[in-house]
Amino acid sequence: MKEFRKLDIIVNAADVFDGCNWEKEIRSNLVRTIHDMVRAYKIMNKRGTDRGGVILNISILYGIKPLSFGANMNFQKTGIRVVTLCPGITNTNFIKNAEKTTLTPEMAKQLET
């Protein structure tokens, strides 16, 4: 902010879910995302309605309606757009070896479908 004096885009990307501490996951993935959206909105909105900006949330499918739709309704007069990108599972070594490395066998089977 000191160098460029403006904020055009913010990207919120969630953590990997480990299933061990759900309260930590909620704080990290949901609460922090909402906090960052509000903070970015305050900075972007100071420039006036003609400048806008983009808040990009990288999320699972369930994050589309509550985060993007609600925020777009609230931010629509400011020119700030809220976009949610929901990438699918990509056939990587992480996914191929998920059963052996990070997930329970039941969780790994769910990823296969």
Automatic annotation (TrEMBL):
The entry's keywords: Oxidoreductase
Record InterPro entries: NAD(P)-bd_dom_sf (IPR036291)
Gene Ontology terms, MF aspect: oxidoreductase activity, acting on the CH-OH group of donors, NAD or NADP as acceptor
Keyword Oxidoreductase: yes
SUPFAM superfamilies documented for this protein: NAD(P)-binding Rossmann-fold domains
Keyword Oxidoreductase: yes
GO cellular component: cytoplasm
Family named by the database record: Belongs to the short-chain dehydrogenases/reductases (SDR) family.
Name of the protein in its database record: Adh short domain containing protein
